[in-house]
Amino acid sequence: MEKTLVILKPSCVQRSLIGEVISRFEKKGLRLAGTKMIQMTDAILNEHYAHLKDRPFFERVKNSMKVCPVVVQCWEGIDAAKVVRSIIGVTDGREAVAGTIRGDLSMSAQENIVHASDSAESAKVELKRFFADNEIFDYKLSTLAHLYACDEI
Ligand code: ADP
User: Fold this and answer.
1) Which of 43, 60, 72, 127 is least surrounded by Cβ atoms within 10 Å, i.e. has the fewest?
2) Exposure string over 5-34, b if 16+ CB within 10 A, otherwise e
């Protein structure tokens, strides 16, 4: 099944929203395949946010990601990358639709609680950036038959 990367950013950790955010992914029916706390560094962030390097807010965004440790997670499910992106909402918390994580919990384009891979392809690259193979666990959820029809899995 598809796996995707989620990062609970310093805005999530500092505002004590870790449980709230994890709960939303759990309730949706995604399976937590890996999780750990790490301190971001410039080296990782230069790679992770390479697509933003010419934007005026690049340094500011990197600094905000280093304020405290973050929680990196691997979530799994059918179409996981697309599903997680729809649960988190658009980048700017003020524009994100109510009911999404950013729409409910963020007032900012920068301090927007979570990162999530934007496609299944980028998820593969991003998961390798943050997890060793033995940090991803392939256990089976006993509720699988209640999460999907048999022809979906
Ligand atoms: P997303 O996180 O929704 O995939 P991007 O990859 O475009 O969005 O941007 C990465 C992160 O950079 C955002 O989550 C946000 O923290 C920050 N960011 C993006 N655009 C802005 C902006 N206009 N002002 C401040 N920070 C921004």
Assistant:
1) 43
2) bbbbbbbbbeeebeeebbebbeeeebbbbb
Domain residues for the domain of 78 are 2-147
Does 38 reside within a domain? yes
Index of the ligand 1 atom closest to the CA of residue 90: 3
Reported as a single tens digit per residue, the pLDDT across 3-26 is 999 999 999 999 999 999 999 999
In a domain, 68, yes or no: yes
CATH at residue 105: 3.30.70.141
pLDDT tens digits for 36-88? 999 999 999 999 999 999 999 999 999 999 999 999 999 999 999 999 999 99
Residue 152 domain flag: no
Q: Which residues line ligand 1 (CB under 6 A)?
A: 52, 57, 61, 91, 109-110, 112, 115, 118
Let me know: does 72 contact 35? Beta carbons within 8 Å: yes
Q: Is residue 75 part of a domain?
A: yes
Domain count, the chain: 1
The pTM for the full model equals: 0.98
